């Protein structure tokens, strides 16, 4: 038999398959990826450095949806806010991947490059170097938490007669919104507070 025109395995196919499994199950294993691709587990290791290598492929795949052009906007606060919104949208498309990606160090060059640009944005805007990473980490926490919220159950609070919570019931009734609206409103509250704090930090920088 002649060789197939396209290889059975490559990094793109591995990333696509692993992300499909994570979207379904919240995690993956190398044997699962190999089985779905109809290949031997050992063959996968010819293309990636084990499970950690696949995790970085997933990170690159998900983060590729973040629009890097947002970091070219000016002034700095417009850029940072736009980047946060794009970041949230990218990860909201694959919320089950968030715990997996956030519990391993970032090594993917394309992802590090975006962080390099975000750091440069803040430094060029006049932020003190010591303030940059706390701000970016706080923004990341807000973005990823909100992306997870978009995948949360429609009803997050199940009230029971055995544990009366009339004030909570009143607040929930007043909100009367679906999951997406709830997550969007909460994100706007958090982002507004974050941007206000960031502007104050910059104003206090000598």
UniProtKB/TrEMBL annotation:
Spans traversing the lipid bilayer: none
GO biological process: negative regulation of DNA-templated transcription
Pfam families for this protein: TetR_C_1
DNA-binding region, residues: 29-48
Alphabetical keyword list: DNA-binding, Transcription, Transcription regulation
Domain of life the protein comes from: Bacteria
Native species: Streptomyces afghaniensis 772
The name this protein goes by in its record: Putative Tetracycline repressor protein class C
A molecular function (GO) term: DNA-binding transcription factor activity
Residue stretches making up the HTH tetR-type domain: 8-66
InterPro entries according to UniProt: Homeodomain-like_sf, HTH-type_TetR-like_transc_reg, HTH_TetR, Repressor_TetR_C, Tet_transcr_reg_TetR-rel_C_sf
């Amino acid at each position: 038999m002649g060789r197939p025109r396209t290889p059975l395995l490559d990094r793109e196919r591995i990333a696509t398959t692993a992300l499909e499994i994570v979207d379904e199950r919240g995690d993956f294993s190398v044997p699962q990826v190999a089985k779905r691709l109809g290949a031997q587990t050992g063959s996968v290791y010819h293309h990636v450095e084990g499970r950690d290598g696949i995790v970085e492929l997933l990170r690159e795949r998900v983060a590729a949806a973040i629009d890097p052009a947002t970091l070219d906007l000016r002034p700095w606060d417009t850029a940072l806010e736009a980047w946060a919104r794009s970041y949230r949208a990218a990860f909201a498309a694959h919320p089950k991947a968030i715990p997996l990606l956030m519990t391993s160090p970032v090594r993917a060059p394309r992802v590090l490059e975006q962080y390099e640009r975000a750091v440069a944005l803040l430094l060029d805007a006049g932020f003190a170097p010591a303030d940059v990473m706390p701000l970016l980490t706080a923004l990341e926490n807000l973005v990823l938490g909100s992306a997870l919220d978009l995948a949360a159950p429609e009803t997050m609070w199940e009230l029971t007669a055995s544990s009366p919570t009339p004030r909570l019931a009143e607040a929930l009734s007043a909100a009367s919104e679906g999951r997406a609206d709830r997550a969007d409103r909460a994100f706007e509250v958090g982002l507004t507070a974050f941007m206000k704090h960031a502007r104050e930090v910059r104003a206090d920088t000598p």
